[in-house]
Amino acid sequence: MKLSLSALEIFLKKQCDALRTSMDAAEYKDYIIAMIFIKWANDNFVLQQKKYAEKLRKEDSESARKLILDIGYQRLYSTIQEYLDAHIRKLQGKIEEIYDKYTVTLGSMIDERDKAVNELDSFLKQMNYL
Asked: N or C: which terminus of the chain carries fewer CB neighbours within 10 A?
């Protein structure tokens, strides 16, 4: 399956938005630098592709041109896919950490409510309010 440029851009923008909401700027910059590198790699790939295409047009070799383009796309796709898989795994770990940190069970909420009610009762009794 080939990854189109527009699909990659949409995916990266969504990932940036997701990252912006859950991490501080120092950590966010690491992801942005990596995404800028991917953008640079893509732009560089397009430039190299144009150079090869021009060279092959001069040689008028359609089969060689297709072979070079296929190899280039395969390499670029596999490199980006490996990078994205690694960062998706890292993001999943972060999401699990956040979930574990902020997950509150109903039982613990009831216990906290009961504690607060008991403390309020004892305070009001001390004030001779009850």
From this structure: N
